[in-house]
Design goal:
The protein has about 290 residues and is of the alpha/beta class. It has nine helices and 15 strands. The protein has two domains: about 180 residues, NAD(P)-binding Rossmann-like Domain (Rossmann fold); about 100 residues, UDP-galactose 4-epimerase, domain 1, CATH 3.90.25. The chain is globular. The model has no long low-confidence stretch (mean pLDDT about 95).
């Protein structure tokens, strides 16, 4: 199996690279600023690294020509930068389709407004933020340009954290900073998502990469938690004082974005062997 992981130096990408190399797959990965191998990330040294700028037309074609993968996972995240998140994903889909590569495109629950709270794989996007709009546009384009591709929506991605939070996700690092009083902000009690562990997510994405299943998939955890509830679980796991975490309500601010978005992954779980654990399980204090 020869696989290309676009966005391999990111939080999810690093785990994908680690698992693919551990499985003995011929693994290539892309980076924009520096490869994960420069940080000593596990498994990174076993991958071939290629610099890729998705804003540059034709660059993805050059990388695919050099790697000749049988499968591509697009795990890059350009945030609300339309040129990367939307246009870049379109370039990936077009290039993968031209070469006949299996494509797995990673999307987000940000494509939903929260107006209906519960969302299964059949729900159509109705984004309310620039990031959500870019992700929704990418979804539509991928499904049109590469009908055999798998599009996988996910939610907040959580890792193993650690005593200083340095090995964790953005949310885990934020919890550590808030508990230490080194960052201003609050954790919202009315902003609800279905967090997923990075190991579960990477495992499920690699399953999709070797399958021929096409269409929409939801890869989110089984538990719906507010960002504050999630923060408390992270704090307890990492030995922090959860009482130091500032609390607030998103609805009391002018911040854009959906409040309550719960991805229903039950239909996807009928086809994916990896069990998508809830945060209450994977953050349980032993």
């Amino acid at each position: 199996m020869k696989i290309l992981i676009i966005g391999g130096s990111g939080f999810l990408g690093t785990e994908l690279v680690r698992r693919a190399t551990a499985a003995g797959w011929e693994t290539a990965a892309t980076y924009c600023s520096r490869p994960a191998s420069a940080t000593g990330a596990a498994g990174a040294a076993g991958a071939a690294w290629h610099r890729l700028d998705l804003r540059s037309p034709g660059h993805i074609d050059e990388v695919l020509a050099a790697v000749t993968p049988s499968a591509v996972i697009n795990a890059t995240s350009g945030g609300s930068d339309w040129v990367v998140t939307a246009d870049g994903s379109i370039r990936v889909a077009m290039a993968a389709a031209r070469r006949g590569c299996r494509l797995v495109h990673v999307s987000s629950d940000a494509v939903f407004s929260g107006s209906r709270i519960h969302y299964d794989e059949t729900c159509l996007p109705d984004p309310v933020t620039p990031y959500g709009a870019a992700k929704a546009s990418a979804e539509t384009a991928v499904r049109l340009l590469a009908p055999s591709a798998a599009v996988a929506r996910t939610s907040l991605i959580i890792g193993h954290g650690g005593s200083d939070g340095s090995g964790g996700s953005v949310h885990e690092r934020l919890v550590h900073a808030l508990a230490a009083g080194t960052h201003d902000g609050v954790l919202f009690t009315d902003d609800v998502r279905c967090p997923v562990h990075v190991e579960d997510l990477a495992s499920a994405l690699l399953e999709l990469a070797v399958s021929d299943r096409a269409g929409m998939f939801h890869l989110a955890g089984a538990d719906a938690l507010s960002r504050h509830e999630l923060g408390v679980l992270i704090a307890r796991r990492d030995g922090l004082d959860a009482g130091r975490l500032p609390v607030g309500r998103r609805s009391d601010t002018l911040m854009p974005g959906a409040l309550d978005v719960r991805l229903d992954s039950s239909a996807t779980q009928e086809h994916v062997r990896t069990r998508l654990r809830g945060a209450g399980e994977f953050l349980r204090v032993q």
